[in-house]
Write a structure and sequence with these properties.
This protein is mainly alpha-helical. It has one domain: lambda repressor-like DNA-binding domains (434 Repressor (Amino-terminal Domain), Orthogonal Bundle), CATH 1.10.260.40. The chain contains five helices and no strands. The longest helix is centred in the C-terminal third of the chain and has 17 residues. The protein is globular, with a radius of gyration of 16 Å. The N and C termini lie far apart (about 45 Å).
């Protein structure tokens, strides 16, 4: 979630970040979702590119960073595209 927020804040698309990190788009999306089955090396690479620290010595600093990113995520829209479903009004 923090990686996705940092990517969006830097106005990078999933494709752009995937190319820079030399990973597939699907792996990048899984990393952003927090999938534990992802390669730790790929996760660290992606985090380093967008500037998200994954290792913090002070737990208080980590808690502050997480709270900060949660506030940002609350402001983001849940979807960027409008729904493709049309309205059926033929009664």
């Amino acid at each position: 979630m923090m990686i996705r927020a940092a990517r969006i804040e830097q106005k990078m698309t999933v494709s752009e970040l995937a190319i820079r990190a030399d990973v597939s788009r699907s792996l990048l999306q899984r990393i952003e979702e927090g999938d534990p089955g992802c390669s730790i090396g790929a996760a660290f690479e992606v985090a380093a590119i967008v500037g998200v620290p994954l290792i913090v010595e002070d737990p208080k600093t980590l808690a502050i960073n997480v709270a900060h990113f949660k506030e940002k995520l609350a402001l983001l829209p849940k979807a960027a595209r409008k729904s493709q479903r049309g309205v059926k009004d033929d009664f």
